[in-house]
Amino acid sequence: MIELTAAPATLPPGERVYAIGDIHGCLDRLVALHEMIAEDITARPAEHTTLVHLGDYVDRGADSAQVIDWLISGPPVPADDFVNLMGNHELMMLSAIAGVDKEAPSHWLMNGGADSLLSWGISRTVPPAEWASRIPRQHLIFLRDLAISHRIGPYLFVHAGIQPGVPLERQSRHDMMWIREPFLSSRVDHGAVIVHGHTPKREPIVLPNRIAIDTGAVLGGALTCVVLEEDKLGFLQS
Fold it and tell me: DSSP code of 113?
């Protein structure tokens, strides 16, 4: 049973959201967490459930390709809606594969891209110009079609955060996928509670204006899911 405590905002009655932080190729943890979510939905049915993944599916862990495959095939979670957001690591990967910026491939490799390539059976000796042809087309389509943000009631789900003082509808894609400061230090009301990952911490962080759930799964920490319903929240971890 999930231990629920006070949340910084209130969802409409009957609405429940499960949001999962940075996965980084940790397939076993993701599968285990999906099983926990499925069990919770079965044990505690809700009128409407949404499962949100906050991005960074690839890099650093061993199973980036397998994580993408798992998400494409549809996790065995009886949620009503599934939302997959783009993280900065997906953006780096797409930029490296596009071949527009000659520095993008080396930048991606230095940030865990080599691990991702290996998960697709691609050696570092393979030229970047050949990477796209060796990655399944459905994987590339999945990555390119990822959303940047998603709003549910008083919560805004993004990968990294937002720029304080800028209206939510005018936030840049770059900030929502990359920002740390001044977002992390800000205590202002953003107009929504921001649920994000991107910056790993040992434990989830719950503040009046944001909820952070990157707990460093690929760094030896847990993979974390925040559960939001009515004016409460709780956590599942694998």
Answer: I
Residues forming a β-bridge with 150? 157
Q: Whose CA is closest to 114, among 101, 131, 102, 137?
A: 131
Structural domains of the chain in order of their starting residue, each with its CATH number? 5-237 (3.60.21.10)
Cα angle 110-115-116, degrees, rounded to a multiple of 5: 100
Angle, CA 237 vertex, CA 88 and CA 45 arms, to 5°: 105
In the numeric block, which tokens belong to residue 86? Answer: 């783009």
User: How far is the C-alpha of 222 from the C-alpha of 29, rounded, in Å?
Assistant: 8
Q: Does residue 118 sit in helix, strand or coil? A: helix
What letter does residue 109 receive in the DSSP assignment? I
Q: Cα–Cα distance between 149 and 157 in angstroms, integer?
A: 6
The position carrying tokens 């599934």 is 82
What's the start-to-end Cα distance of the chain, in Å? 15
Which pLDDT value is given to residue 99?
A: 84
Compute the residue count for the chain: 238
Question: In a 10 Å sphere around its CB, with 0-12 CB exposed, 13-18 middle and 19+ buried, how is residue 103 labelled?
Answer: exposed
Residue 159 CA to residue 182 CA, distance in Å, equals 15
Express each pLDDT in 109-160 by its tens digit. Answer: 999 999 999 999 999 899 999 999 999 999 999 999 999 999 999 999 999 9
Measure the CA–CA gap between 114 and 44, rounded to whole angstroms: 41
Comparing CA positions, the residue from 134, 108, 119, 129 lying closest to residue 65 is 119
Helix (H) or strand (E) holding 8: none
